[in-house]
Design goal:
The complex is a heterotrimer of chains A (276), B (527) and C (315). Chain A is 74% helix and 0% strand. In chain A, helix 2 (12-34) packs across helix 3 (66-102), helix 3 (66-102) packs antiparallel against helix 4 and helix 4 packs antiparallel against helix 6. Chain A is mainly α and 276 residues long. In chain B, helix 17 (416-428) packs parallel to helix 18. In chain B, strands 6-7-8-3-9-10 form a six-stranded mixed sheet, with helices on both faces. In chain B, strands 16-17-18-13-19-20 form a six-stranded mixed sheet, with helices on both faces. The radius of gyration of chain B is 25 Å and the shape is globular. In chain B, a hairpin with a 2-residue loop joins strand 19 (483-488) and strand 20 (491-497). In chain B, 36% of the residues lie in helices and 25% in strands. Chain B has two domains: 5-102 and 173-257, Rossmann fold (3-Layer(aba) Sandwich); 274-516, P-loop containing nucleotide triphosphate hydrolases (Rossmann fold). Chain C has 315 residues and is mainly alpha-helical. Chain C has a single domain, classed as Orthogonal Bundle (MetI-like fold). In chain C, 79% of the residues lie in helices and 0% in strands. Chain C has 13 helices and no strands. Chain C starts with a helix and ends with a helix. The chains are: A mainly alpha (276), B alpha/beta (527), C mainly alpha (315). Chains A and B meet through helix 4, helix 7 and helix 8 of A and helix 13 and helix 15 of B.
């Protein structure tokens, strides 16, 4: 683990990515403790206060402190995106591995169907599912997980198929190893690295998608200060208080960049052939 | 008289993350007009770096720290990029190792010749076309006009290499660099390309620098030979003399490592007991798919043979002949028709005892060991599966001449030859009675190949193991096999005792294969 | 490119559309919405509601409803909007035409910027331009459209006042004004595409530059320009065709947000309104048309790829 971190830090992307995500993690863990105010504390004299000594990142239309809302809102944004991605990856990876292992017509049928599902744009699929489930944070989360599964299935399958072509898998089959043993001991360790990379990059999409769903009114609901919701709220006062949009917008972007950088760094760090 | 190409005291460094790496050290050689110089060396010897230095095509981190390269008396290293581009192709031609990757896949073959004629001989489009057609005919390609409009993927490897050769010769260069031009081709195709090389040389009198790892080949094409190792030239001399009387220790080892068909490495006769019999084995790769056309090919049909206890059976054929498919059928990696008998007992399902008795070693050292398992774990699997103790791992490693502490290494920390040794150890961990060796030395250097073969024979002496040795190298297999079977296009065409080779009783195809694998130097006078 | 290839490809597309239809129908079945309540209002009597449900076929078994729906779809009948009472098909296709204009402009802008940017970044690896290109790439793929759109609005419309804030003017009505209304949304959408394609173009170019055939072309003494245009660009652009087609799916998703923010009456906005109003026929039609558009874009890309790459021409 420390070995992996050391190799991560050797790549420029990995070092940046880990640093950003460490800060984001700290905010998620300690956000409420760090926040100068309660996120719901209204202050009518401080309405639309510009960023300054009193409100570092300004205040909104009710005089609520933007920094505090941001720090509290992190918990509704990043961990949720992580969870949604992991759920989607799990379902997709199992489906993709099964498809690759089954092979033949089963594989063909599963993959064609997955291709077909992917003809529906991801955001639209998430929107449809979220509205079917009635909207709200949890349904948005589930919608993203479902929308991610087909793509992860496709990637897992192609990686698994590539691993299956390797001679060490042929050697295991020739040796008479059990199917379970071949999948878990021979193929999985080689499949898992690229899947981890892809998953990490997808967390950044999930962060954006989750915020977009909130923005469109199908994700987190007020009084949550989920970051997409903050942008959506602030848009009304764009002219007078642009920071209400810029601050949460930047927060979303920075977290997403963090996961993207980490993914690219992991791609290099997890390559066994580069291990010194 | 000054030489046509003269390299003097050339030293080349690569800047790497951990300081600089010396690729060439004080290299000197010269090629007279009309002469062919052979440059021999194993992988990593610096022969390709030397060729690229002559072509002025070096990576960004490469630096020529000393020396000069002169072509017809003019210093090449002093030329600017534009002048160098006017020299390349025009005065120095090049033929590459792999014709399948050195031709642009999205341009017609014709365009790839005419662009050189237009550039270097100033021909107009139409003139260039006519000249290109003439050159295609000169390299003995039929239907030249039609070929001009074809794309690389539509023609065979041999045809592609002829196009590459035509491109190199068309601007009338003074010297042509050949970088292993037959290595990527089949034995017979490669032999034809060599004939073409001799013909064009006689016609044009062009000088050549012929790079190869294959000593026997270089002896046939070059008058003089330079032997490279570790970025230095260790020995130069007349081809005929140098191979007969190598003075440098490394050259001697290299010459020794070249397979000589008449120097048998195995002198025993196997017993008469039959170990494995394969009857009418067939594999068809055609498959019906839901939305895609069914690809076919690579299959085998009606292949029957037997291997005796402790026997070495050679299976010879060119790529695509189906010889690897036979290996896959015997180890249950593909579904096959026909029947197998082990010790006379029919094998209905590939059960534990069959798998233990019949082990396989694969061609590619990089792919045959799981990169995420340590050597210890790789060797532990067969021991667990077939009964054995993990305490045997050091012995297994020592038996394949590897230090016992290699157990804790990862595959990527091993060289190609070492990986193959681990793969061999893995096979022998099962205490097998037959080991199938599928082109296991094809991607190794000659000296590594020789020691790998030596290892296999040593293990056979210890354990009495039989081998099914699959290869395209007839010279190699003649040294070790008791009997040979020859495959072509999925069928067994010949089956003979190794002593019967050259007696005239062999199949015409076997004879063609023999003719295409020339005897190494000093062998012409052999029995 | 043979006829069997094309027919197989069309068969695949038909299967895709069938799966999409099943999926969309299933999702809209589960949606907590009752067409009869929507049409008659909350105060309708149970008897009136039942009568209407029977008339609409809502009491039929699900598979029969699906069959009726599919049957009328095949006849080009997408149903009637529960919100406006107008036929859904014409409304959606008119909206689609506006979205396609937006998409086409965005793809065009993306190609003009992303391809040279990616190629130059690959040719000058590690240069300031390369760093800039990778910065743009990371930003483009990490900033959601609704944030980009808002930034564009703040800067170009609100602060600088160069562009109208929102709205849509048909080009046929007032060309210059129509173009001015398109600029902000096109910029927003193309940023993501530029990021993605420039990144792809860079890595493809690096791969091709390292290939044996490009080295061979250089060692043949060809001019730099010839090597670059004839040997490098041609081969590096090929895979980008496929990527652009795949990006159409992404673009269609992004268009929902962008049309909403810039108040462009395209298919994305229609869909969003339909979803918010639980207007089932409009949701079904909109989703199907979007998926269909994506499928057609992929088909066109496959055909273009087959025409450009001689290796696939005689499949």
């Amino acid at each position: 683990m420390t070995d992996l971190l050391r190799r991560l830090f050797r790549t420029r992307q990995g070092a940046f990515g880990v640093s950003i995500l460490m800060i984001v993690t700290l905010i998620c863990l300690l956000g409420p403790a760090l926040a100068p105010y309660s996120p719901d504390r209204m202050d009518f004299l401080g309405r639309f206060a510009a960023p300054g000594v009193r409100h570092w990142l300004g205040a909104d239309q009710f005089g609520r402190d933007e920094l505090s809302r941001l720090l509290y809102g992190a918990r509704d944004t990043v961990p949720a995106a992580l969870l949604a991605t992991l759920a989607g990856t799990l379902v997709g990876a199992v489906l993709g591995t099964l498809s690759a292992y089954a092979g033949g017509s089963w594989d063909e049928a599963i993959m064609r169907t997955i291709d077909a599902v992917m003809a529906i744009p991801g955001l639209l699929l998430a929107l449809l599912i979220a509205s079917t489930l009635g909207g709200g944070e949890q349904s948005a989360l589930l919608a993203i997980a479902i929308a991610f599964a087909p793509g992860m299935a496709r990637i897992t399958r192609s990686v698994a198929l590539a691993a299956r072509q390797e001679e060490y898998v042929a050697a295991a089959i020739a040796r008479g190893e059990s199917g379970v043993r071949i999948v878990f001991a021979e193929m999985l360790p080689n499949v898992i690295a690229p899947v981890i990379v892809e998953t990490t990059i997808r967390v950044s999409f999930a962060v954006m998608l989750l915020a977009t769903l909130s923005f469109l009114g199908l994700g987190a609901q007020p009084p949550s200060s989920e970051w997409g919701l903050l942008v959506s709220d602030g848009r009304t006062y764009l002219h007078d208080a642009p920071w209400l949009v810029l601050v949460p917008g930047a927060a979303i972007a920075i977290s997403a960049i963090g996961f993207n950088l980490l993914g690219d760094g992991l791609r290099d760090a997890l390559n066994p052939r580069d291990e010194r | 008289m000054t030489a046509l190409l003269e390299v003097r005291n050339l030293t080349l460094d690569y800047a790497t993350g951990r300081g600089s790496f010396r690729a060439l050290e004080d290299v000197s050689l010269s090629v007279e007009a009309g002469e062919v110089l052979g440059l021999v060396g194993e992988s990593g010897s610096g022969k390709t770096s030397l060729a690229m230095a002559v072509m002025g095509h070096l990576a960004g981190n490469a630096r020529l720290t000393a020396g000069s390269i002169r072509l017809g008396g003019a210093e090449l290293t002093a030329l600017g990029p534009a002048a160098m581009r006017a020299t390349l192709g025009r005065r120095i031609g090049m033929v590459f190792q792999n014709p399948s990757t050195s031709l642009n896949p999205t341009l017609t073959l014709g365009r790839q010749i005419t662009e050189v004629l237009e550039r270097h001989r100033g021909l107009s489009g139409r003139e260039a076309w006519k000249e290109a057609v003439a050159w295609l005919e000169r390299v003995e390609l039929r239907h030249a006009e039609a070929l001009m409009r074809r794309y690389p993927h539509e023609v065979s490897g041999g045809e592609k290499q002829r196009v590459v050769i035509a491109t190199a010769f068309a601007p009338h260069p003074e010297i042509v660099l050949f970088d292993e031009p037959t290595t990527a081709l089949d034995v017979i195709t490669g032999a034809r390309i060599l004939e073409l090389f001799h013909k064009l040389r006689a016609e044009t009198g062009v000088a050549g620098l012929y790079i190869s790892h294959d000593l026997g080949l270089v002896a046939r094409v070059a008058e003089n030979v330079a032997v490279m190792r570790g970025g230095r030239i260790v020995e130069t001399g007349r081809a005929t003399h140098l191979f007969a009387h190598p003075t440098h220790d490394y050259t001697r080892r290299l010459v020794d490592a070249v397979p000589r068909p008449h120097r048998r490495l195995v002198d025993d006769n196997p017993g008469s007991a039959e170990l494995l019999r394969a009857e009418a084995i067939g594999v068809s790769y055609a498959r019906r798919r839901l939305f895609r056309a069914s690809p076919a090919g690579g299959g085998i049909d009606g292949v029957s043979f037997a291997i005796g206890e402790g026997e070495i059976l050679g299976l010879v054929g060119e790529s695509g002949s189906g010889k690897s498919t036979v290996a896959r059928a015997l180890t249950g990696l593909v579904r096959a028709t026909g029947s197998l008998r082990l010790d006379g007992v029919p094998v209905t399902r590939m059960r534990h005892d069959y798998r233990r008795a019949v082990q396989i070693v694969f061609q590619h050292p990089d792919s045959s060991l799981n990169p995420r398992h340590r050597v210890r774990d790789i060797l532990a699997r067969p021991l667990r599966l077939y009964g054995g103790s993990l305490a045997q791992i050091p012995t297994l490693l020592r038996n394949v001449n590897l230090p016992a502490d290699y157990a804790s290494r990862w595959p990527h920390q091993l060289s190609g030859g070492e990986k193959q040794r681990v793969a061999i150890a893995r096979a022998f961990a099962a205490r097998p009675r037959l080991v199938i060796c599928d082109e296991i030395t094809a991607s190794l250097d000659v000296s590594v190949q020789a020691s790998t073969i030596e290892l296999l024979l040593q293990l056979r002496r210890q354990h009495g193991t039989a081998y099914l040795f699959i290869t395209h190298d007839l010279n190699l297999i003649r040294q070790i096999a008791h009997r040979l079977i020859v495959m072509r296009e999925g069928r067994l065409v010949d089956r003979l005792d190794v002593k019967a080779l050259g007696s005239g009783r062999e199949h015409p195809y076997t004879r063609a294969l023999m003719a295409a694998s020339p005897l190494p130097v000093g062998e012409e006078t052999g029995p | 490119m043979s006829l069997t290839w094309l027919s197989r490809r069309l068969l695949l597309m038909a299967y895709t559309m069938l799966v999409v239809a099943v999926l969309v129908f299933a999702i809209t079945q589960v949606l907590p919405a009752d067409a009869a309540v929507t049409l008659l209002g909350q105060n309708a009597t149970p008897a009136a509601l039942l009568a209407l449900r029977q008339k609409l076929g809502l009491t039929d078994p699900t598979w029969l409803q699906f069959w009726h729906w599919l049957w009328s779809l095949l006849h080009g009948n997408f149903g009637t909007s529960m919100r406006t009472g107008l036929p859904v098909g014409p409304t959606m296709f008119a909206a689609l035409s506006r979205s396609l204009l937006l998409a086409a402009c965005s793809i065009l802008l993306m190609l003009v910027i992303a391809v040279p940017l990616g190629v130059l970044a690959a040719l000058r690896r590690g240069s300031a331009l390369d760093v800039f290109a990778s910065l743009v790439s990371y930003l483009g793929i990490s900033v959601p459209e609704f944030v980009t759109a808002t930034f564009v609005l703040v800067v170009l419309a609100d602060r600088l006042g160069w562009l109208p804030a929102t709205g849509y003017v048909p080009l046929s009505q007032h060309f210059a004004d129509g173009v001015r209304h398109l600029i902000a949304p096109v910029l927003t959408i193309s940023l993501v595409l530029i990021a993605h394609v420039a990144r792809m173009m860079r890595s493809e170019t690096i791969d091709v530059l390292a290939s044996d055939y490009v080295r061979a072309a250089q060692l043949k003494g060809l001019l730099r320009r010839t090597v670059l245009v004839r040997h490098v660009l041609r081969n590096a652009l090929l895979p980008v065709v496929t990527v652009v087609a795949l990006d159409v799916g992404y673009l269609l998703g992004g268009i929902i947000v962008v049309e909403e923010i810039f108040a462009i009456p395209g298919i994305g906005r229609e869909l969003l309104i339909a979803i918010q109003n639980r207007d089932l026929p409009s949701i079904q039609a909109g989703a199907l048309i979007m998926a269909g558009t994506y499928a057609v874009a992929n088909l066109l890309a496959d055909i273009a790829y087959a025409l450009l790459d001689p290796r696939l021409r005689y499949d």
